[in-house]
Amino acid sequence: MSDEPLGIEIRELTTADEAHEAARVLAAVWPGDRQAMPANILRALAHSGNYVVGVFDGERMVGASAAFFGPPASRSMHSHITGVLADLQGSGIGRRLKQHQREWAFARGVGRITWTFDPLMARNAHFNLRVLGARVTEYLVDQYGPMDDDVNRGDASDRLMVTWDLASPPARTPDFADVAAEVMIPGDIETMRRETPAAAAAWRRVVRDMLVGHLAAGLRIAGFDDERGYLLVPA
Known about the structure:
Blueprint lengths: L7 E5 L3 H14 L9 H9 L3 E7 L2 E10 L6 E9 L8 H14 L5 E6 L4 H10 L3 E6 L18 E7 L15 E3 L5 H7 L1 H20 L2 E7 L3 E6 L1
Helix pairs in contact: 1-2, 5-6
């Protein structure tokens, strides 16, 4: 059973005031970066028909998400940013947001949603690969360049690109016998970045070298295990 608070509502943002509130929420999720997602960009995306929503607990906006359409022939949508305020993280809202995004996309003829996440974030790897069953398609080295928020400051912005095929069954975690390589990651890189940044930077280099090397050797990331890390199989 979900621990999601009662009264949570997800709805599209249709006014400038809502766009500014969403920008403030996202800036609170990524403190130190006032430009996490500027209100004018949110407003422009929404007005041009893209996915821009707020998560409301009563009248209080507690989260926001923005995505935009890919090339017309791809029938895809890229989910650029999704954030929930700290006091409600881990309450099931993230899963509900993804389902809302899926239904919204389906209604507009979109067949797949892509997004990126930091490969060192174990909880995101678990959610994206084990819960949603998205598929990793690419390792992106320092994708966004230097980032100035408190979560990412001082670290390279490596990301994994994932694809969520909306009409396909979730990707299945590979059987042990099929796994050709494993790449472990720390359980809490966020705390490590604050308390032992040198160790966090070392993890970045090790995980990057191992994953990029395995992918270049013809393997693909096929799943994630909380104890063993990324599970790779022959492509």
